[in-house]
Amino acid sequence: MVGIVSYGFYLPKYRIKIEEIAHQWGKNPKEIKQSLLIEEKTVSSFDEDSLTMAYESSSMALSHFDDELSKIKIVFFGSETPVYAVNPTSTILAEFLGIEKNYLALDHQFACKAATGAMMSALGLIKSGFSDYALVCASDKATAKTHDALEYTAASGAVSLILGKKDVLLEVVDFTTYSSDTPDFWRREGIRFPSHGGRFTGKPSYFAHIIGASKKLLEKNKITVKDFNYGVFHMPNGKFPQEVAKILGFSLDQIKDGLVVSFLGNSYTASALMGLMAILDKAKAGDLIFFASYGSGAGSDVFIFKVTQEIEKKRQNFSMILKNKKYIDYSTYLKFMKII
Amino acid sequence: MISVIGFYQTKFGELWEKSLFDLVKETISSILKENQLSIEEIDAIFFGNMLSGVLENNLHSAAKIAEIIKKNIPIFRIESACASGGVAFYLAKQYLEANSNKTVLVIGAEKMTDFSPEEITQALAGAASGDEQEVGLTFPGAYALMSNFYLKEYGYSEENLAYVAVKNHFHGSLNKKAHFQKKITLNDVLKSTYVAYPIKVLDSSPISDGAAGLILTNDRDLIKKAKNQVKVLASEMATDSISLMERERIDEIKTTKIAAKKAFSSAKVDQKDIQVAEIHDCFTIAEILAMEDLGFWRKGEGGKRVKDQETMLGNGGKLIINSSGGLKAAGHPVGATGVKQIGEIYLQLTNQADNRQVKNAHYGLTHNVGGSGGTAVVTILAS
């Protein structure tokens, strides 16, 4: 059995409300909230970045890791906002965590699915015997141009997973992926903020890829959506995951616990995984979880997870951390995001 | 007599999987196939397109069309902002008046949704006065100025404008080729986000992809053989100052008045003869001003008349406006719009308009505007 052995997450304490952003631009916050189904988002502080947040989430994951650090021979870091354009974040992270030098370090890039793609690579390397464990991190301090639609959703956060064969709390039953050249969201070299194709990010991009990957995995495993206790879908906003879930046949009950975007925003690579973290607060042994990430450009990685008894020993408290929050105003937000 | 003997329209909307020339190719091959004609029978092509030079650096589109059809006939690309399609038709008619026994295609096409709102807004603003662009006036801004003046001068409110959008969306809901096929309420329009006060999102036509084509001929044998044909009684065009500030009045479009006067005169019909018309409703105010400038309504009474919804299908009115959904709901791929308008009237006058058919329609009119009124083309057709 391969799967997730331990997990950790990090949420910055700062939040900004949709009203606060909307008022700056003379927009009606009610309309924006109705259209994006989002109330507020996380903001990392001026002294936080994707590396510091990955360190925090990884430290939490390691707090429930009982084996020797030297057995982690894989450190993968997925992000859209790495601290360097050239110079790996994965090595800095490993160094900070005290992981020994005999490891494979790689930074992964594929928009919001960089880390789930890294999970697939890591699972293959574990199965092949290359390493007993792998640390996979998803971390973003997501930026958006001011007055762009993305400004209401782009958030900060990190999730770290230790993958392995021993004492697995989430068994990876199966996974698949689905990709195509669909340029719906991008950031060119030297350009500070991402661009996007507006409505093109929907039907031919997010929906086509998640549905493509999901149907493939469900058919392959001869399993229906009704067999799942939970469903989690990448959350660029609150609307898309609900729509895609409905198209695939998931009920609101199955997805509601993972719909964290409405109060956390979209932390890009960590977004879908953050929904999984929320579900693990409640999940019981035997529960089946359907998980779909999405990365612009574009692709979707989908997994079927099965919860084991180990969850009871390693369960973290996601809902408790959510309570530690402080609201900031728009100018503080700009300062924290280093826009001013 | 010059007659329209065929029409084809692609779906209008967000056609992300198709390029500009995919749309042109689809239109040419479909219109020829549906009308059992071969490309060998086409003597020239008039192509209405505004933006491909600005957005895609594709300026020599006549040669690109020659590559598609694999023929070496004269092909003309006509750019006249949002009136590119209407002007292409006007010039095609002139060509036929100068040449007997000829058959031409009038194609209009535009590819807009692959570009960011900023790129499209800037490209469209290229059809406005340079002086006004420099001070930041966009097309929504120009029509907002006209709206504000009109509403204040004649004592109307934003609600009067909104009735245009409600009507045209109702008509769009009956048109399978329309960009938007959804009915909207007055409240939907009034609650939509402001673009440039008092113009809101639902007062505005959308950015669309699409193409349309017409077969126009003066070949008597072809006209005789055609399953459906309508006569072109008149197609007239006028131009005026590109700048709003140089215009004599801001509550009327002079080019519309001139082109309409000439068209009614040469067609030898008057406003009362028209049962169906496609009017250039890029913004809701534009339809109201056009109804007055075309002489259907008196100056200043448009706000009231539109509220009565007498030009909406099913209300028993004698004149139905924008049965296709207009630019507002059917969509506004700018170069295609003027061609689609004539195509809609062709469908209406030949009883091919399905569930949006206007009963006993014998005379129809189209009105296509470039920019904020710098160009206007008025065409009158008869069954």
How are the SSEs ordered, and which strands pair?
The complex is a heterodimer of chains A (about 350) and B (about 375).
Chain A: E1 3-10, E2 14-17, H1 18-24, H2 29-36, E3 40-43, H3 50-62, E4 72-78, H4 89-97, E5 104-108, H5 114-127, E6 133-141, E7 156-164, E8 170-182, E9 185-186, E10 195-196, H6 202-220, E11 230-233, H7 239-248, H8 252-255, H9 261-264, H10 271-279, E12 288-292, E13 297-307, H11 311-314, H12 318-322, E14 326-327, H13 330-336
Parallel strand pairs in A: 2-14, 4-5, 4-6, 11-12
Antiparallel strand pairs in A: 1-7, 1-8, 2-3, 6-7, 8-13, 9-10, 12-13
Helix pairs in contact in A: 1-2, 3-4, 6-7
Chain B: E1 3-9, H1 20-34, E2 44-48, H2 52-55, H3 61-69, E3 75-78, H4 84-98, E4 103-110, H5 117-125, H6 130-134, H7 139-154, H8 158-172, H9 186-191, E5 194-196, E6 199-200, E7 210-217, H10 220-225, E8 230-239, H11 254-267, E9 276-278, H12 284-293, H13 302-307, E10 320-321, H14 326-330, H15 334-349, E11 363-370, E12 375-382
Interface with most residues: A-B, 9 and 8 residues
Main beta sheet of chain A, described?
9 strands, mixed
Radius of gyration of chain B: 19 Å
Shape of chain B: globular
**Total DSSP E strands of chain B:** 12
Tell me about this structure.
The complex is a heterodimer of chains A (340) and B (383). Helix content of chain A is 33%, strand content 25%. Chain A is an alpha/beta fold and 340 residues long. In chain A, a hairpin with a 4-residue loop joins strand 12 (288-292) and strand 13 (297-307). In chain A, helix 1 packs across helix 2 and helix 3 (50-62) crosses helix 4 (89-97). Chain B has helices spanning 20-34, 52-55, 61-69, 84-98, 117-125, 130-134, 139-154, 158-172, 186-191, 220-225, 254-267, 284-293, 302-307, 326-330, 334-349; strands at 3-9, 44-48, 75-78, 103-110, 194-196, 199-200, 210-217, 230-239, 276-278, 320-321, 363-370, 375-382. With 383 residues, chain B is α/β, with parallel strands linked by helices. Chain A binds chain B through residues 27-28, 31, 195, 197-200, 204, and chain B through 14, 16-17, 113-114, 116-117, 193.
